[in-house]
């Protein structure tokens, strides 16, 4: 199932440039909080790519798998959605705190 | 589509108890970092409920909507998955940092 | 160092009410995505409490520890800030993906 | 206050390489979920850099600002810690869900 990823490829090229920019900020020993802010901005931009990819995936590969009526394939594609959602939700509490 | 939510209802009762526990920690002016740790543990437990609900939803309501062959219904249920994924990914960079 | 936690205690009472509300949504088998949205709203409200607690902690206990000139105490309070920041940042990639 | 950022610069070079790798995955129209997994792994690696920077910042610039006994400077550096913590915690609930 061919996708047009041109927009996301462009986003990643911008992100790549910002990663190099952050390297320079470190080389120039710029203020750490400014660097953390830039990293958080890059994190947000990366998440935009993930969300756009997921949206495209749901409307193509997932639909095809479900229409294929192959229960094994259906189970696989649905469990992957749960997996990436779980990963993005993962707050791993510090050792000291857990809900018994 | 009836779901068996007993496990998640039980999880939420435990979470409710921990929320009251955190209130007591605040009333007793306990150490703030210990309270933040407990809040992060509650956050992780809440996310577990979200992930389990999404997994159930994908394998019931989403499948039914897609098998219904109603394109409007399909679009709606798929866009909701993207929405909750986007919400869980949302890192809103501080005002000072954005990728131009 | 006594803090006035009344505002956060009030926030937690509202959160406690919403947790019971989510239990009822589950008991009534309401639409899963609506329940996930509510859980995400509760997660955001919990984070507001964490942020407010951290801000208070920085301006009281942390300052006192640093002014105490006790290097062991300083190291401890600073490492706790890194720990809760790390926990809130923790995105644990799924098994299949890691940066070698 | 000079920091030795060599380790983080090296991490960012690895991350930069992975960003190019993700671009190639998109150009080759590889499986979207595999690409999302890689993006999540890059997000985790970026967060490691943020956490390490924060730790260094706390133990240098923050300590200096607090020892400077300049209340304006103290307030500024402490509020920055709260800000980056808040950004990393930011779960922006979807429009439909908010705690009234």
Automatic annotation (TrEMBL), chains A, B, C, D:
Coiled-coil regions listed: none
GO molecular function, one term: DNA binding
Membrane-spanning ranges: none
Domain of life: Bacteria
GO biological-process terms attached to the record: negative regulation of DNA-templated transcription
InterPro entries from the UniProt entry: Metal_Tscrpt_repr, Metal_Tscrpt_repr_sf
Gene3D superfamilies linked to this entry: Metal-sensitive repressor, helix protomer
Name of this chain's protein: Copper-sensing transcriptional repressor CsoR
Source organism per UniProt: Candidatus Brevifilum fermentans
